[in-house]
Amino acid sequence: MITSKKIYKIIPHVVLGIMSLFAILPIILLFMASVTDETTLMMNGYSFFPKKFSSASYEYIFKAGRTIIRAYGISVIITAIGTVLNILMTIFLAYPLSRPNLKGRNVIAFIVFFTMLFNGGLVPTYIVYSQIFHIRDTIFAMLIPSYLMSAFNVILMRNFFSSSIPGEILEAGKVDGANELQTLFRIVLPLAKPIIGTIALMSGLAYWNDWTNGLYYIVRRTDYYNIQNVLTNMLNNIQFLKTSSQMQGINVDLGTIPSVGIRMAIAVMAIVPVLIVYPFIQKFFVKGIVIGGVKG
Fold first, then answer.
1. Residues 30 and 264: beta-carbon distance below 8 Å
2. Cα separations (Å) of 81 from 136, 200, 238?
C-alpha cells in the first residue's frame, strides 16, 4: 500500500525525471540531426530516428584537422587563463568590499554596480583596446575584452562573503595573529568553494562560447581564432558557397553540401566540452547562486 508519505517522495522524483528528460531530448535531437544525411534532413526534417545516417558534416569539419585542433587548444588555454584571472580579480575586489571597516566601501561598491548599468559602448571600447592598448591581432584580444572582470560576479561574491562567512571566525583569526591575506587564504577561501565554483563556471562558459572578440579584434592573425570563430567561419563559407552557386546558376547538388547538418555538428562540438566539465562543478553552482544572491 502506498502511503501519503511515499507519494510525497515519488512525486518530486517523477517531476524531476520529466524535467531532466526535457533537458536531454533537445541534445539528443541535436546530435541525431548532425549525423543525418543532408537530403533526408531537408526532406523529412529533424527526427530521433532518421532514415539515413551520414557523417558528412563531421567529415567536412575535420578536413581542417590542424585548424580544428589548434582552435580547440586556443579555446582551452584562453578559457583556463581567463577563468583563473577572473576569479582572482573578483576575489581581491569582493573580499575588501565585504569588510565593514573598509573606508569608502559604499563609493567603490557604487562604482562597481554602475558599470553593470552603463558602459562606453562598442565603438569607444574598440578604439581604446585597439589604438591605446594595441591588443588587436594579439592573444590578449581573446583574453581581456568583455570577460576579464564582471561586476555581477563581484557583487555575487561580496554577498557570499558577507552573509556566509561568520564574523566570529574572522575575529578568531585576528586573535591568533592572522593578517588580512592570511585570513583570506586560510579561512575565507576554503569556505567559499561554492561561490568560486559558480563564478568559475559562468566565467568559463563566457570564454568558451565567445566569438565576438575574435570577430572584432583578430584581423590578420587568424591562427589566434578559437573554436567558435573557426566553426563560424566554416558555416559562413558554406552559406556563401550555396548562395553563390544559386545566384550564378552553377549546377551544384545542394544536398551534398551539409549546410543544415553542419550547424548541428558545430553545436555538438561546441557543447561537448561543457557537458563533460559541468557535472564536476554543478554541485557548487546552485549553492553558490542561492547564497551569493542573498543581499549582504
1. yes
2. 18, 11, 32
Q: What is the pLDDT of residues 253-267, one digit of tens each?
A: 554 556 677 778 878
Max Cα-Cα span within the chain: 82
Q: Which three cell numbers stand for residue 152?
A: 555581477
Distance in angstroms (rounded) separating the CA atoms of residues 296 and 293: 9
The domain defined by 65-292 folds into MetI-like fold (1.10.3720)
Apex 207 CA angle, 32 and 122, nearest 5: 115
Give which of 123, 125, 117 is closest to 146, Cα–Cα. Answer: 125
Q: How far is CA 22 from CA 15, 26, 172, in A?
A: 11, 7, 49
Q: At 30, which amino acid appears?
A: L
C-alpha torsion angle, residues 36, 39, 42, 43 (rounded to 10): -110
The domain segmentation of the chain, as residue ranges, is 65-292
pTM: 0.77
Residue 220, helix vs strand vs coil: coil
Q: Identify the DSSP state of 144.
A: S
Cβ neighbors of 273 (< 8 A, separation 6 or more) are: 76, 208
Cα distance between residue 259 and residue 37, in whole Å: 11
Judge whether 203 and 150 are in contact, CB under 8 Å.
Answer: yes
In the chain, the DSSP E strands lie at none
196-218: pLDDT as tens digits = 888 888 888 899 888 889 889 98
Mean of the per-residue pLDDT values of the chain: 80
Q: Please name the residue that has the C-alpha cell 591562427.
A: 223
